[in-house]
Amino acid sequence: MPELILKAKSDRRLRQGHLWIYSNEVDVGKSPLQSFVAGQQVDVLDAKGKPLGTAIINPKQLICGRLVSRKAGQPLTQERLKSRLKAALASREALFDDHCYRWVYGDSDGLPGLVIDRFGDVIVVQVSNAGIELLLEALLAAINELLPELNILLKNDGKMRAIEGLDEYVRVAQGDVPKLVPLKENGVSFLVPVWDGQKTGWFYDHRLNRRRVQKLSAGKRVLDIFSYIGGWGIQAAAAGAKEVVCVDASASALDLVHQQAQLNGVADKVHSLKGDAFAAMKQLHEDGERFDMVIIDPPAFIARRKDIKAGELAYQRANQLAMRLLTPEGILVSASCSMHLERTRLTQLLQEACRKNGRNGQVLEQGGQGGDHPIHPAIPETDYLKSVILRTWYED
Q1: Confidence category of residue 36, pLDDT binned at 50, 70, 90
Q2: Could you give the CA distance from residue 99 to residue 190 in angstroms, rounded to a whole number?
Q3: What's the rounded Cα separation, in Å, for the pair 351 and 362?
Q4: CB contact at 8 A, 23 and 38
Q5: Cα-trace Rg, the chain
Q6: Which one, of 164, 61, 289, 301, lies nearest residue 273 by Cα?
Q7: pLDDT, tens only, 235-270
Q8: Strands 3-5 and 40-45
Q9: How confident is the model over 292-309, as a mean pLDDT?
């Protein structure tokens, strides 16, 4: 196999367990990056020629290499794909019922740039790595060896495809995949827009956090901000909330909210409000609306490190507006999927929101991503999700 040679002292991170190779760590005199093809698998050597492992390379990226083995000469093959898929499947099946989970979570499962979400007998495959794209037929064959006759949708239209230099497309690779696919989470039924929805159509990462909110929802009036298709709000309604209001900018997402409510027999308790979340919260406050629980799970306000300052301001503003809508002793559920927002910083922003709203706050529980989004201990970027359940009240 071709050899990628690193500069002196550039192997420390890899030896500590990380999997990524940055372009400025490569000795381009000995192994010019332009000599490699995107998606090529290479042996990685340190400056002294000692092997560090096998990697998939994309010479045009800042992260130009991703290890797929700690041994040299061990490229991903159909058999290795099958072995890693099998290990990931066993892990998920041990954790979750109903065959509904994220089957593969990229680097954490030894398959960089690959996400597979399972919805019973339907799977949605997303590839954002040129090397995995070259192995697509082998990947599908390996899947069929493990779980024959699945219905497979290739939803390869994410922004990371363009960054990786890959074409975008959405197509059925096998079987029949309807526009809406059934899913069950925490005992609640949903219909997932796998063709047209965000990412794969569903966000499994908050499953455990939504389950905790179910426990707190009974008898409460609940507001679900950035509701998407109702993952939080419908589960709250099914758990006994007396009323749920879902707010989202997408009319099609809110149409699905009402379908989910009908599906679970809670249509009389679920209402929706279409519009910008910030404007909607202001209007609800002006209208005197108050809720026992407000759930705010926004998109990533901090996509890149350079966005941290602006993103933190957005999180602070969103949580302050949400907190104004709480009853005197209300619960705020605040979530973030921004990897660059540290958990402690989110808690600080909530404390600032309490102070500006004249409230006291008490963190009842903090949550992260479920076991189908395993964290690689050497890659902090895989530990991105956080949620805080905050009890608030006014001073006596």
Answers
A1: very high
A2: 14
A3: 9
A4: no
A5: 23
A6: 289
A7: 999 999 999 999 999 999 999 999 999 999 999 999
A8: parallel
A9: 95
Instruction: Report d(CA 164, CA 58) in Å as an integer.
Output: 8
How high is the pLDDT of residue 130?
96
Residue 294 is encoded by which pair of tokens? 């407000």
- Residue 88's SS3 state is helix
Which of 12, 49, 382 has the alpha carbon at shortest distance from 22? 12
Q: Which amino acid appears at position 224 of this protein?
A: D
Grade residue 160 by pLDDT with cuts at 50, 70 and 90. confident
DSSP state letter for 7: P
Confidence of residue 276 (pLDDT cuts 50, 70, 90): very high
Q: Report phi then psi at 152, rounded to 5.
A: -120, 120
Beta strands in the chain (DSSP E): 3-5, 20-22, 40-45, 51-57, 63-69, 100-105, 114-119, 122-127, 151-156, 169-174, 181-185, 188-192, 221-225, 243-248, 270-274, 291-296, 326-336, 359-367, 386-394
Q: How many angstroms separate the CA atoms of 114 and 133, rounded?
A: 9
Residue 320 and residue 356 in contact, taking contact as beta carbons nearer than 8 Å: yes
d(CA 176, CA 123): 11
What domains can be seen in the chain, in order of their start residue?
Answer: 3-69 (2.30.130.10), 78-177 (3.30.750.80), 182-394 (3.40.50.150)
Q: Is residue 337 flagged as an active site residue? A: yes
Dist. CA 172–CA 183, nearest whole Å: 19
Q: In sequence order, what are the beta bridge partners of 272?
A: 246
d(Cα 146, Cα 137) in Å, to the nearest integer?
15
Average confidence (pLDDT) over 126-133: 97
The pLDDT of 159-168, averaged and rounded, is 91
pLDDT of residue 236: 98
Task: Give the integer Cα–Cα distance in Å for 329 and 117.
Answer: 38
Alpha-carbon span 278 to 322, nearest angstrom = 9
CA geometry: angle at 114 spanning 113 and 119, to 5°? 150
